[in-house]
Design goal:
Elements: H1 7-16, E1 20-22, H2 24-28, H3 36-44, E2 68-73, H4 77-88, E3 94-97, E4 109-112, E5 119-122, E6 127-128, H5 140-147, E7 152-154, E8 161-165, E9 168-169, H6 173-196, H7 203-209, H8 217-226, H9 228-231, H10 248-251, E10 257-258, E11 263-269, E12 272-277, E13 282-290, H11 294-298, E14 303-305, H12 310-318, E15 320-322, E16 324-330, E17 341-345, E18 354-357, E19 369-375, H13 376-383, H14 387-401, E20 412-414, E21 428-430, H15 437-444, E22 451-453, H16 466-485
Parallel strand pairs: 2-3, 2-13, 3-10, 8-17, 11-14, 13-22
Antiparallel strand pairs: 1-6, 1-7, 4-5, 8-9, 11-12, 12-13, 15-21, 16-19, 16-20, 17-18, 18-19
Helix pairs in contact: 4-16, 6-8, 12-15
The structure holds flavin-adenine dinucleotide.
The site of flavin-adenine dinucleotide has 40 residues, from helix 4 and helix 16.
Length: 512
Protein backbone atom coordinates (compact mmCIF):
# COMPACT_ATOMS: atom_id res chain seq x y z
CA UNK A 1 0.00 0.00 0.00
CA UNK A 2 1.65 3.18 -1.04
CA UNK A 3 -0.40 6.23 -1.97
CA UNK A 4 -2.44 8.66 0.08
CA UNK A 5 -6.09 8.69 -0.87
CA UNK A 6 -6.47 12.46 -0.68
CA UNK A 7 -6.26 13.98 -4.12
CA UNK A 8 -3.97 16.82 -3.01
CA UNK A 9 -1.66 14.45 -1.25
CA UNK A 10 -1.53 12.33 -4.38
CA UNK A 11 -0.41 15.39 -6.26
CA UNK A 12 2.18 16.18 -3.59
CA UNK A 13 3.53 12.68 -3.62
CA UNK A 14 3.73 12.71 -7.36
CA UNK A 15 5.73 15.90 -7.34
CA UNK A 16 8.26 15.14 -4.66
CA UNK A 17 8.09 11.37 -4.15
CA UNK A 18 7.90 11.65 -0.38
CA UNK A 19 7.02 8.03 0.29
CA UNK A 20 9.41 6.30 2.59
CA UNK A 21 10.05 2.74 3.42
CA UNK A 22 10.48 2.30 7.14
CA UNK A 23 13.57 0.47 8.14
CA UNK A 24 13.82 -2.63 10.26
CA UNK A 25 14.64 -0.41 13.16
CA UNK A 26 11.05 0.72 13.46
CA UNK A 27 9.46 -2.66 13.04
CA UNK A 28 12.04 -4.51 15.08
CA UNK A 29 10.71 -2.65 18.06
CA UNK A 30 7.43 -4.47 17.53
CA UNK A 31 8.73 -7.93 16.90
CA UNK A 32 8.65 -9.67 20.23
CA UNK A 33 7.09 -9.36 23.67
CA UNK A 34 10.50 -8.43 24.99
CA UNK A 35 10.38 -5.38 22.84
CA UNK A 36 7.06 -4.06 24.05
CA UNK A 37 8.77 -1.68 26.37
CA UNK A 38 10.84 -0.28 23.56
CA UNK A 39 7.77 0.12 21.40
CA UNK A 40 5.90 1.87 24.12
CA UNK A 41 8.83 4.14 24.74
CA UNK A 42 8.79 4.87 21.07
CA UNK A 43 5.15 5.86 21.24
CA UNK A 44 5.72 7.65 24.50
CA UNK A 45 7.17 10.63 22.73
CA UNK A 46 4.63 10.49 19.96
CA UNK A 47 3.40 13.68 18.42
CA UNK A 48 0.21 14.83 20.10
CA UNK A 49 -2.42 15.39 17.49
CA UNK A 50 -4.30 17.93 19.58
CA UNK A 51 -7.62 16.20 20.12
CA UNK A 52 -9.77 17.20 23.06
CA UNK A 53 -7.84 18.59 25.97
CA UNK A 54 -8.96 18.42 29.58
CA UNK A 55 -8.29 20.05 32.88
CA UNK A 56 -6.28 17.97 35.37
CA UNK A 57 -8.42 15.31 36.96
CA UNK A 58 -7.94 12.12 38.87
CA UNK A 59 -10.38 9.45 37.68
CA UNK A 60 -8.87 6.92 40.04
CA UNK A 61 -10.48 8.81 42.90
CA UNK A 62 -13.79 7.14 42.00
CA UNK A 63 -12.80 3.52 41.51
CA UNK A 64 -14.67 1.33 39.07
CA UNK A 65 -16.72 -1.63 40.31
CA UNK A 66 -15.37 -3.54 37.30
CA UNK A 67 -11.92 -5.09 36.81
CA UNK A 68 -10.75 -1.98 34.96
CA UNK A 69 -12.19 1.27 33.67
CA UNK A 70 -11.35 0.61 30.04
CA UNK A 71 -10.54 -2.55 28.11
CA UNK A 72 -8.69 -1.82 24.90
CA UNK A 73 -9.34 -4.82 22.69
CA UNK A 74 -6.44 -5.24 20.25
CA UNK A 75 -2.83 -4.10 20.54
CA UNK A 76 -2.25 -2.65 17.07
CA UNK A 77 -1.67 1.00 16.26
CA UNK A 78 -5.18 2.12 17.32
CA UNK A 79 -4.99 0.21 20.60
CA UNK A 80 -1.60 1.63 21.52
CA UNK A 81 -2.46 5.23 20.70
CA UNK A 82 -5.73 4.85 22.63
CA UNK A 83 -3.73 3.71 25.67
CA UNK A 84 -1.39 6.62 25.29
CA UNK A 85 -4.24 9.13 25.02
CA UNK A 86 -5.92 7.70 28.15
CA UNK A 87 -2.66 7.91 30.04
CA UNK A 88 -2.12 11.50 28.93
CA UNK A 89 -5.53 12.33 30.36
CA UNK A 90 -4.78 10.83 33.73
CA UNK A 91 -6.51 7.51 33.18
CA UNK A 92 -4.24 4.54 33.81
CA UNK A 93 -6.87 2.07 34.88
CA UNK A 94 -7.01 0.34 31.50
CA UNK A 95 -5.78 -2.91 29.98
CA UNK A 96 -4.76 -3.65 26.42
CA UNK A 97 -5.82 -7.16 25.45
CA UNK A 98 -4.01 -8.77 22.52
CA UNK A 99 -4.24 -12.27 21.07
CA UNK A 100 -0.68 -12.38 19.81
CA UNK A 101 2.43 -12.52 21.92
CA UNK A 102 3.43 -9.01 20.84
CA UNK A 103 1.96 -5.60 20.19
CA UNK A 104 1.94 -4.05 16.73
CA UNK A 105 -0.96 -5.73 14.92
CA UNK A 106 -0.61 -5.34 11.18
CA UNK A 107 2.85 -3.84 11.63
CA UNK A 108 4.59 -7.18 11.61
CA UNK A 109 8.25 -7.87 11.10
CA UNK A 110 9.73 -11.29 10.38
CA UNK A 111 13.13 -12.76 9.59
CA UNK A 112 13.48 -13.95 6.05
CA UNK A 113 16.27 -15.72 4.20
CA UNK A 114 18.43 -18.80 4.09
CA UNK A 115 20.57 -19.50 7.21
CA UNK A 116 23.34 -16.90 7.41
CA UNK A 117 21.56 -14.60 4.95
CA UNK A 118 18.59 -13.48 6.99
CA UNK A 119 17.02 -10.03 6.87
CA UNK A 120 14.16 -8.34 8.71
CA UNK A 121 11.17 -7.84 6.46
CA UNK A 122 7.78 -6.24 6.87
CA UNK A 123 4.88 -8.61 6.21
CA UNK A 124 2.41 -5.75 6.68
CA UNK A 125 2.68 -1.95 6.70
CA UNK A 126 5.79 -0.65 5.03
CA UNK A 127 5.33 2.90 3.78
CA UNK A 128 4.78 6.19 5.54
CA UNK A 129 2.52 8.07 3.19
CA UNK A 130 2.23 11.72 2.43
CA UNK A 131 4.99 12.49 4.90
CA UNK A 132 5.09 16.30 4.87
CA UNK A 133 4.99 19.09 2.33
CA UNK A 134 6.68 22.34 3.35
CA UNK A 135 5.32 23.51 6.69
CA UNK A 136 2.08 21.58 6.22
CA UNK A 137 0.82 18.96 8.64
CA UNK A 138 2.99 15.88 8.83
CA UNK A 139 2.06 12.25 9.09
CA UNK A 140 2.39 11.36 12.81
CA UNK A 141 4.05 8.08 11.88
CA UNK A 142 6.69 10.10 10.02
CA UNK A 143 7.16 12.28 13.12
CA UNK A 144 7.68 9.19 15.27
CA UNK A 145 10.23 7.76 12.90
CA UNK A 146 12.10 11.07 12.67
CA UNK A 147 12.14 11.62 16.43
CA UNK A 148 13.73 8.24 16.93
CA UNK A 149 16.23 8.65 14.12
CA UNK A 150 14.94 5.62 12.28
CA UNK A 151 16.44 5.02 8.90
CA UNK A 152 13.95 5.69 6.14
CA UNK A 153 14.43 5.42 2.46
CA UNK A 154 12.48 7.56 -0.02
CA UNK A 155 10.73 5.31 -2.47
CA UNK A 156 11.18 6.32 -6.08
CA UNK A 157 7.70 5.24 -6.98
CA UNK A 158 7.42 7.20 -10.21
CA UNK A 159 10.99 7.18 -11.37
CA UNK A 160 12.50 3.72 -11.00
CA UNK A 161 10.56 1.27 -13.11
CA UNK A 162 11.34 -1.52 -15.60
CA UNK A 163 8.52 -3.06 -17.64
CA UNK A 164 7.93 -6.64 -18.82
CA UNK A 165 5.19 -8.75 -20.26
CA UNK A 166 4.80 -12.48 -20.90
CA UNK A 167 7.19 -12.28 -23.85
CA UNK A 168 10.04 -10.83 -21.80
CA UNK A 169 11.35 -7.27 -21.32
CA UNK A 170 9.21 -4.74 -23.24
CA UNK A 171 9.40 -0.97 -22.85
CA UNK A 172 5.90 0.39 -22.23
CA UNK A 173 6.89 3.17 -19.86
CA UNK A 174 4.87 5.67 -21.90
CA UNK A 175 1.72 3.58 -21.31
CA UNK A 176 2.58 3.42 -17.63
CA UNK A 177 3.09 7.21 -17.44
CA UNK A 178 -0.29 7.64 -19.08
CA UNK A 179 -1.85 5.48 -16.39
CA UNK A 180 -0.25 7.67 -13.69
CA UNK A 181 -1.87 10.74 -15.27
CA UNK A 182 -5.21 8.94 -15.62
CA UNK A 183 -5.21 8.04 -11.94
CA UNK A 184 -4.54 11.66 -10.92
CA UNK A 185 -7.37 12.71 -13.21
CA UNK A 186 -9.64 10.06 -11.66
CA UNK A 187 -9.12 11.38 -8.12
CA UNK A 188 -9.88 14.92 -9.27
CA UNK A 189 -13.04 13.74 -11.04
CA UNK A 190 -14.15 11.89 -7.91
CA UNK A 191 -13.41 14.90 -5.70
CA UNK A 192 -15.48 17.21 -7.92
CA UNK A 193 -18.59 15.09 -7.38
CA UNK A 194 -18.70 15.84 -3.64
CA UNK A 195 -19.49 19.60 -3.61
CA UNK A 196 -21.99 19.07 -6.42
CA UNK A 197 -23.79 16.38 -4.40
CA UNK A 198 -23.49 13.88 -7.24
CA UNK A 199 -24.17 10.23 -6.52
CA UNK A 200 -21.19 7.93 -5.99
CA UNK A 201 -20.28 5.31 -8.54
CA UNK A 202 -17.47 2.82 -9.07
CA UNK A 203 -13.95 3.86 -9.92
CA UNK A 204 -14.31 1.77 -13.09
CA UNK A 205 -17.14 4.07 -14.13
CA UNK A 206 -14.92 7.04 -13.20
CA UNK A 207 -12.10 5.75 -15.41
CA UNK A 208 -14.57 5.31 -18.29
CA UNK A 209 -15.89 8.84 -17.77
CA UNK A 210 -12.41 10.29 -18.22
CA UNK A 211 -11.86 8.09 -21.27
CA UNK A 212 -9.30 5.76 -19.66
CA UNK A 213 -10.29 2.33 -20.93
CA UNK A 214 -7.43 -0.15 -20.81
CA UNK A 215 -7.53 -2.46 -23.84
CA UNK A 216 -4.13 -4.16 -23.85
CA UNK A 217 -2.46 -6.27 -21.17
CA UNK A 218 0.16 -3.57 -20.77
CA UNK A 219 -2.48 -0.91 -20.20
CA UNK A 220 -4.26 -3.16 -17.71
CA UNK A 221 -1.02 -3.78 -15.78
CA UNK A 222 -0.25 -0.03 -15.76
CA UNK A 223 -3.70 0.73 -14.38
CA UNK A 224 -3.27 -2.03 -11.78
CA UNK A 225 -0.04 -0.42 -10.53
CA UNK A 226 -1.91 2.82 -9.85
CA UNK A 227 -5.11 1.37 -8.54
CA UNK A 228 -5.32 -2.20 -7.21
CA UNK A 229 -1.83 -2.04 -5.77
CA UNK A 230 -3.09 0.82 -3.61
CA UNK A 231 -6.64 -0.19 -2.70
CA UNK A 232 -6.04 -3.95 -2.68
CA UNK A 233 -9.16 -4.27 -4.83
CA UNK A 234 -10.20 -3.50 -8.40
CA UNK A 235 -11.71 -0.22 -9.71
CA UNK A 236 -15.00 -2.16 -10.05
CA UNK A 237 -14.95 -2.88 -6.30
CA UNK A 238 -14.00 0.63 -5.20
CA UNK A 239 -15.92 3.87 -4.75
CA UNK A 240 -15.02 6.73 -7.07
CA UNK A 241 -15.58 9.42 -4.44
CA UNK A 242 -13.74 7.62 -1.65
CA UNK A 243 -10.80 6.99 -3.93
CA UNK A 244 -10.35 10.74 -4.08
CA UNK A 245 -10.16 11.39 -0.25
CA UNK A 246 -8.12 10.78 0.62
CA UNK A 247 5.82 3.43 24.83
CA UNK A 248 5.48 1.66 27.65
CA UNK A 249 8.56 2.39 29.64
CA UNK A 250 6.98 5.77 30.10
CA UNK A 251 3.32 4.97 30.41
CA UNK A 252 2.54 1.26 30.08
CA UNK A 253 3.03 -0.85 33.18
CA UNK A 254 3.24 -4.62 32.79
CA UNK A 255 -0.25 -5.17 34.24
CA UNK A 256 -1.73 -2.86 31.60
CA UNK A 257 -0.98 -5.30 28.79
CA UNK A 258 -2.45 -8.78 28.48
CA UNK A 259 -0.81 -10.73 25.67
CA UNK A 260 -1.75 -14.15 24.26
CA UNK A 261 -5.37 -13.49 25.20
CA UNK A 262 -7.90 -14.17 22.44
CA UNK A 263 -11.28 -12.55 22.90
CA UNK A 264 -14.20 -14.82 22.05
CA UNK A 265 -17.26 -12.99 23.38
CA UNK A 266 -18.02 -9.38 24.19
CA UNK A 267 -21.09 -8.81 26.37
CA UNK A 268 -22.24 -5.23 26.58
CA UNK A 269 -25.03 -3.23 28.15
CA UNK A 270 -25.62 0.29 29.40
CA UNK A 271 -23.82 -0.71 32.61
CA UNK A 272 -20.55 -1.81 31.07
CA UNK A 273 -18.77 -4.52 29.15
CA UNK A 274 -17.57 -8.02 29.96
CA UNK A 275 -15.16 -9.94 27.77
CA UNK A 276 -14.69 -13.70 27.69
CA UNK A 277 -11.43 -15.22 26.43
CA UNK A 278 -10.81 -18.49 24.62
CA UNK A 279 -9.62 -20.07 27.90
CA UNK A 280 -12.97 -19.24 29.54
CA UNK A 281 -11.67 -16.44 31.79
CA UNK A 282 -13.37 -13.04 31.82
CA UNK A 283 -12.60 -9.39 32.41
CA UNK A 284 -15.07 -6.59 32.98
CA UNK A 285 -14.80 -2.87 32.35
CA UNK A 286 -16.87 0.29 32.36
CA UNK A 287 -15.98 0.82 28.69
CA UNK A 288 -14.45 -1.27 25.92
CA UNK A 289 -12.76 0.00 22.80
CA UNK A 290 -12.85 -2.60 20.03
CA UNK A 291 -9.94 -2.13 17.61
CA UNK A 292 -10.14 -5.48 15.80
CA UNK A 293 -9.93 -5.27 12.02
CA UNK A 294 -13.05 -4.90 9.92
CA UNK A 295 -12.35 -8.43 8.63
CA UNK A 296 -12.47 -9.86 12.16
CA UNK A 297 -15.81 -8.13 12.80
CA UNK A 298 -17.21 -9.36 9.48
CA UNK A 299 -16.26 -12.98 10.08
CA UNK A 300 -17.85 -13.49 13.48
CA UNK A 301 -14.49 -14.41 14.98
CA UNK A 302 -15.71 -12.53 18.01
CA UNK A 303 -19.32 -12.84 19.22
CA UNK A 304 -21.24 -9.91 20.59
CA UNK A 305 -23.97 -10.37 23.19
CA UNK A 306 -26.51 -9.08 22.44
CA UNK A 307 -25.96 -9.25 18.67
CA UNK A 308 -24.90 -5.84 17.37
CA UNK A 309 -27.79 -3.65 16.18
CA UNK A 310 -28.81 -3.80 12.52
CA UNK A 311 -27.39 -0.37 11.74
CA UNK A 312 -23.96 -1.51 13.00
CA UNK A 313 -24.09 -4.83 11.14
CA UNK A 314 -25.06 -3.12 7.90
CA UNK A 315 -22.07 -0.80 8.26
CA UNK A 316 -19.64 -3.62 9.13
CA UNK A 317 -20.72 -5.70 6.17
CA UNK A 318 -21.04 -2.73 3.82
CA UNK A 319 -17.36 -1.84 3.79
CA UNK A 320 -14.93 -4.31 2.27
CA UNK A 321 -11.67 -5.79 3.43
CA UNK A 322 -9.00 -5.97 0.73
CA UNK A 323 -6.05 -8.32 0.68
CA UNK A 324 -2.53 -7.19 -0.17
CA UNK A 325 -0.01 -10.00 -0.22
CA UNK A 326 3.74 -9.71 -0.59
CA UNK A 327 5.44 -12.88 -1.82
CA UNK A 328 9.12 -12.96 -0.89
CA UNK A 329 11.88 -14.85 -2.68
CA UNK A 330 15.59 -15.07 -2.00
CA UNK A 331 17.94 -16.25 -4.74
CA UNK A 332 21.63 -17.13 -4.57
CA UNK A 333 22.33 -13.94 -6.49
CA UNK A 334 20.58 -11.13 -8.27
CA UNK A 335 19.65 -11.65 -11.94
CA UNK A 336 16.91 -9.04 -12.27
CA UNK A 337 16.24 -5.33 -12.91
CA UNK A 338 18.30 -2.52 -11.34
CA UNK A 339 15.32 -0.26 -10.74
CA UNK A 340 13.28 -0.33 -7.51
CA UNK A 341 10.15 -1.56 -9.30
CA UNK A 342 9.21 -3.72 -12.23
CA UNK A 343 5.81 -4.11 -13.78
CA UNK A 344 4.78 -7.39 -15.42
CA UNK A 345 1.81 -7.45 -17.81
CA UNK A 346 0.25 -10.92 -17.85
CA UNK A 347 -2.64 -12.05 -20.05
CA UNK A 348 -4.64 -12.20 -16.81
CA UNK A 349 -5.01 -8.82 -15.08
CA UNK A 350 -3.45 -8.85 -11.60
CA UNK A 351 -1.38 -12.04 -12.06
CA UNK A 352 1.93 -11.33 -10.22
CA UNK A 353 2.17 -7.77 -11.58
CA UNK A 354 4.26 -5.54 -9.27
CA UNK A 355 7.81 -6.56 -8.41
CA UNK A 356 10.18 -4.89 -5.97
CA UNK A 357 13.89 -5.47 -5.60
CA UNK A 358 15.52 -5.23 -2.20
CA UNK A 359 18.93 -6.08 -3.60
CA UNK A 360 19.67 -2.40 -4.07
CA UNK A 361 21.78 0.34 -2.54
CA UNK A 362 19.78 1.87 0.32
CA UNK A 363 17.83 -1.35 0.89
CA UNK A 364 19.56 -4.74 1.28
CA UNK A 365 22.37 -4.84 -1.30
CA UNK A 366 23.67 -8.36 -1.87
CA UNK A 367 20.61 -9.93 -0.20
CA UNK A 368 19.28 -11.67 -3.33
CA UNK A 369 15.77 -10.68 -2.21
CA UNK A 370 12.93 -9.84 -4.54
CA UNK A 371 9.22 -9.71 -3.84
CA UNK A 372 6.03 -9.56 -5.84
CA UNK A 373 2.68 -8.24 -4.62
CA UNK A 374 -0.76 -9.56 -5.46
CA UNK A 375 -4.06 -8.07 -4.29
CA UNK A 376 -7.81 -8.59 -3.97
CA UNK A 377 -9.42 -11.78 -5.25
CA UNK A 378 -6.17 -12.95 -6.81
CA UNK A 379 -4.44 -12.69 -3.41
CA UNK A 380 -7.27 -14.63 -1.75
CA UNK A 381 -6.92 -17.31 -4.42
CA UNK A 382 -3.16 -17.55 -3.87
CA UNK A 383 -3.73 -18.02 -0.13
CA UNK A 384 -5.77 -21.12 -0.77
CA UNK A 385 -2.87 -22.78 -2.63
CA UNK A 386 0.13 -24.56 -1.15
CA UNK A 387 3.39 -22.63 -0.94
CA UNK A 388 4.84 -25.00 -3.53
CA UNK A 389 2.13 -24.20 -6.06
CA UNK A 390 2.50 -20.46 -5.57
CA UNK A 391 6.28 -20.70 -5.82
CA UNK A 392 5.98 -22.60 -9.10
CA UNK A 393 3.58 -20.00 -10.53
CA UNK A 394 5.89 -17.17 -9.50
CA UNK A 395 8.92 -18.91 -11.02
CA UNK A 396 6.96 -19.47 -14.22
CA UNK A 397 6.31 -15.72 -14.42
CA UNK A 398 9.96 -14.93 -13.79
CA UNK A 399 10.86 -17.32 -16.60
CA UNK A 400 8.53 -15.40 -18.94
CA UNK A 401 10.11 -12.13 -17.87
CA UNK A 402 13.62 -13.52 -18.43
CA UNK A 403 13.31 -16.03 -21.30
CA UNK A 404 17.09 -16.20 -21.79
CA UNK A 405 18.09 -16.66 -18.15
CA UNK A 406 18.27 -19.94 -16.25
CA UNK A 407 16.23 -19.07 -13.17
CA UNK A 408 17.39 -21.12 -10.17
CA UNK A 409 15.21 -22.41 -7.34
CA UNK A 410 14.96 -19.77 -4.61
CA UNK A 411 16.88 -20.40 -1.37
CA UNK A 412 13.96 -19.02 0.63
CA UNK A 413 10.28 -18.42 -0.11
CA UNK A 414 7.50 -17.01 2.07
CA UNK A 415 4.22 -15.16 1.96
CA UNK A 416 1.84 -14.18 4.78
CA UNK A 417 -1.81 -15.26 4.57
CA UNK A 418 -3.64 -12.15 5.80
CA UNK A 419 -7.03 -13.16 4.42
CA UNK A 420 -7.24 -16.50 6.24
CA UNK A 421 -5.63 -15.29 9.48
CA UNK A 422 -8.46 -15.12 12.07
CA UNK A 423 -6.78 -12.12 13.70
CA UNK A 424 -7.01 -9.99 10.54
CA UNK A 425 -9.14 -11.59 7.77
CA UNK A 426 -7.59 -9.31 5.18
CA UNK A 427 -5.03 -6.54 4.96
CA UNK A 428 -6.94 -3.27 5.15
CA UNK A 429 -10.38 -1.86 4.46
CA UNK A 430 -11.62 -0.45 1.19
CA UNK A 431 -14.65 1.71 0.42
CA UNK A 432 -17.02 0.26 -2.19
CA UNK A 433 -19.40 2.44 -4.22
CA UNK A 434 -22.41 1.09 -2.30
CA UNK A 435 -21.04 2.35 1.03
CA UNK A 436 -22.28 5.85 1.89
CA UNK A 437 -21.31 8.32 4.59
CA UNK A 438 -24.18 7.20 6.86
CA UNK A 439 -22.68 3.72 6.85
CA UNK A 440 -19.35 5.12 7.83
CA UNK A 441 -20.88 7.12 10.68
CA UNK A 442 -22.38 3.86 11.92
CA UNK A 443 -19.14 1.90 11.58
CA UNK A 444 -17.58 4.41 13.94
CA UNK A 445 -20.55 4.86 16.27
CA UNK A 446 -20.72 3.84 19.93
CA UNK A 447 -23.18 1.10 20.91
CA UNK A 448 -25.12 1.59 24.16
CA UNK A 449 -22.68 4.27 25.32
CA UNK A 450 -20.10 1.73 26.54
CA UNK A 451 -18.95 -0.17 23.47
CA UNK A 452 -16.61 1.90 21.28
CA UNK A 453 -14.90 1.18 17.97
CA UNK A 454 -11.60 2.41 16.51
CA UNK A 455 -9.07 1.30 13.91
CA UNK A 456 -7.99 2.08 10.40
CA UNK A 457 -11.45 1.25 9.02
CA UNK A 458 -13.21 3.82 11.21
CA UNK A 459 -11.11 6.67 9.86
CA UNK A 460 -13.06 8.70 7.33
CA UNK A 461 -10.04 10.34 5.78
CA UNK A 462 -7.30 7.75 6.18
CA UNK A 463 -9.09 4.39 6.23
CA UNK A 464 -6.62 1.67 5.35
CA UNK A 465 -3.57 3.49 6.69
CA UNK A 466 -1.48 3.33 9.83
CA UNK A 467 -2.06 7.01 10.49
CA UNK A 468 -5.83 6.41 10.20
CA UNK A 469 -5.54 3.89 13.05
CA UNK A 470 -3.27 6.27 14.96
CA UNK A 471 -5.76 9.15 14.88
CA UNK A 472 -8.81 6.98 15.54
CA UNK A 473 -7.29 5.34 18.62
CA UNK A 474 -6.48 8.73 20.10
CA UNK A 475 -9.82 10.23 19.22
CA UNK A 476 -11.99 7.49 20.70
CA UNK A 477 -9.86 7.31 23.87
CA UNK A 478 -10.28 11.04 24.32
CA UNK A 479 -14.04 10.66 24.11
CA UNK A 480 -13.99 7.77 26.57
CA UNK A 481 -11.86 9.83 28.95
CA UNK A 482 -14.47 12.53 28.85
CA UNK A 483 -17.21 10.02 29.68
CA UNK A 484 -15.19 8.73 32.63
CA UNK A 485 -14.62 12.24 33.84
CA UNK A 486 -18.20 13.24 33.75
CA UNK A 487 -20.96 10.94 32.52
CA UNK A 488 -23.19 13.95 31.84
CA UNK A 489 -20.65 15.31 29.39
CA UNK A 490 -20.21 11.93 27.73
CA UNK A 491 -19.95 12.63 24.06
CA UNK A 492 -20.58 9.31 22.29
CA UNK A 493 -20.19 8.77 18.56
CA UNK A 494 -23.73 9.04 17.26
CA UNK A 495 -25.31 6.67 14.77
CA UNK A 496 -27.98 6.93 12.09
CA UNK A 497 -30.89 4.54 12.64
CA UNK A 498 -31.56 3.98 8.96
CA UNK A 499 -29.25 4.91 6.13
CA UNK A 500 -31.53 6.32 3.46
CA UNK A 501 -31.15 6.31 -0.30
CA UNK A 502 -29.14 9.12 -1.79
CA UNK A 503 -30.40 11.28 -4.63
CA UNK A 504 -31.29 10.85 -7.42
CA UNK A 505 -33.09 7.82 -5.97
CA UNK A 506 -34.05 9.57 -2.71
CA UNK A 507 -37.45 9.71 -1.09
CA UNK A 508 -37.94 13.28 -2.31
CA UNK A 509 -38.69 12.00 -5.83
CA UNK A 510 -42.29 11.75 -6.96
CA UNK A 511 -42.59 8.35 -8.63
CA UNK A 512 -46.27 8.67 -9.48
C1 LIG B 1 0.22 -6.22 3.82
C2 LIG B 1 -0.13 -4.86 4.38
C3 LIG B 1 0.49 -3.71 3.90
C4 LIG B 1 0.18 -2.47 4.44
N1 LIG B 1 0.86 -1.36 4.00
C5 LIG B 1 0.69 -0.17 4.64
C6 LIG B 1 1.53 0.92 4.35
O1 LIG B 1 2.47 0.79 3.54
N2 LIG B 1 1.29 2.11 4.97
C7 LIG B 1 0.25 2.27 5.86
O2 LIG B 1 0.07 3.39 6.37
N3 LIG B 1 -0.55 1.22 6.17
C8 LIG B 1 -0.34 0.02 5.60
N4 LIG B 1 -1.10 -1.07 5.95
C9 LIG B 1 -2.25 -0.86 6.85
C10 LIG B 1 -1.83 -0.75 8.33
O3 LIG B 1 -0.98 -1.81 8.66
C11 LIG B 1 -3.12 -0.80 9.16
O4 LIG B 1 -3.98 0.23 8.75
C12 LIG B 1 -2.87 -0.63 10.66
O5 LIG B 1 -1.77 -1.37 11.10
C13 LIG B 1 -4.15 -1.04 11.39
O6 LIG B 1 -4.01 -0.84 12.77
P1 LIG B 1 -5.25 -1.16 13.72
O7 LIG B 1 -4.82 -0.85 15.10
O8 LIG B 1 -6.47 -0.50 13.19
O9 LIG B 1 -5.54 -2.73 13.54
P2 LIG B 1 -4.62 -4.00 13.83
O10 LIG B 1 -3.19 -3.70 13.58
O11 LIG B 1 -5.23 -5.12 13.07
O12 LIG B 1 -4.80 -4.22 15.40
C14 LIG B 1 -5.83 -5.02 15.93
C15 LIG B 1 -5.22 -6.02 16.88
O13 LIG B 1 -6.26 -6.87 17.38
C16 LIG B 1 -5.73 -8.17 17.57
N5 LIG B 1 -6.85 -9.11 17.57
C17 LIG B 1 -7.64 -9.49 16.53
N6 LIG B 1 -8.59 -10.36 16.94
C18 LIG B 1 -8.40 -10.52 18.28
C19 LIG B 1 -9.07 -11.28 19.28
N7 LIG B 1 -10.13 -12.05 18.99
N8 LIG B 1 -8.63 -11.22 20.56
C20 LIG B 1 -7.56 -10.43 20.89
N9 LIG B 1 -6.88 -9.68 19.97
C21 LIG B 1 -7.29 -9.74 18.68
C22 LIG B 1 -4.80 -8.36 16.39
O14 LIG B 1 -3.83 -9.34 16.65
C23 LIG B 1 -4.20 -6.96 16.25
O15 LIG B 1 -2.98 -6.86 16.97
C24 LIG B 1 -0.80 -2.35 5.46
C25 LIG B 1 -1.42 -3.50 5.96
C26 LIG B 1 -1.08 -4.74 5.45
C27 LIG B 1 -1.70 -5.98 6.05
Amino acid sequence: MHLPKVADAVADDMSNTTMHSLSNALWNTLASPLRILRFAAFLGVAHSSGFLSYSPFSPQSTASANDVRVLILGGGMAGITAAKALHEQGIDDFKIVEARGALGGRMKVFKFGAPGRQYSMEAGAEWVHGTQTGDGPSNPIFDLARKHNLTMHPSNYYGSMTTYDYTGPVDYLETWNKAIRAYANLTVTGGHRVPKGLVDTTSRNGYSMIGAKPQTHQEAASEYYQFDWEYAQTPEQTSLIASSWAEAAEFLAEEQVLLNATVKTIKYSRDGVSVMFSDGTTLSADYALVTFSLGVLQNDDVRFEPVLPDWKMEAIHGMTMGTYTKIFLQFPKKFWFDTEYALYADEERGRYPVWQSLDLEGFYPGSGILFVTVTGDFANRVESFTDERVKNEVLEVLRSMYPNTAIPEPDAFYFPRWHSDPLYRGSYSNWPASFVSGHHTNLRATVQDHLWFAGEATSLKYFGYLHGAYFEGRKMASHIARCIRNARQCDTMEHVDEVMNLGPYGTDLDWD
